[in-house]
Amino acid sequence: MVIAGWHYGSTTSSGVASAEVVSQGRQIYSDRCAACHGTDLEGQPDWRSPLPSGRLPAPPHDASGHTWHHPDDVLFRIVKEGTATIVAGGYESDMPGFGGVLSDAEIRAVLADIKSTWPERESSYQERVSQGN
């Protein structure tokens, strides 16, 4: 499948997303993710402290968060299947899976947008952990 100049064939990306893919991802993020994760990827306040429900608030996706610590395939699965599915062990999360709402290409576009905002240090680290899988 090709969307806006980027070939998608697996759960991980190879190469850099085009500006068009990043732009598409930004729009999808705005429509589907920003309500919880923030317009500027800032996450919810006190995202490391459990809510009264015991669940954690939505983390930031900017360099202050931990998104960049995870390889591409894990990030993809979290968005597609939901955090609780990936973490397992009875973990509860307010992060649903979007696999029934977003196509794989749309999920990858959102991730491309998020990744396009990271400074070099975070980008390089995330690229290395993604290649290790």
TrEMBL record:
Keywords: Heme, Iron, Metal-binding. InterPro entries: Cyt_c-like_dom, Cyt_c-like_dom_sf, Cytochrome_c-type_DH. It comes from the Bacteria. Residues 41-67 are annotated as: Disordered. The keyword Transit peptide does not apply. Residues 20-118 form the Cytochrome c domain. This is Cytochrome c. It comes from Sinisalibacter aestuarii.
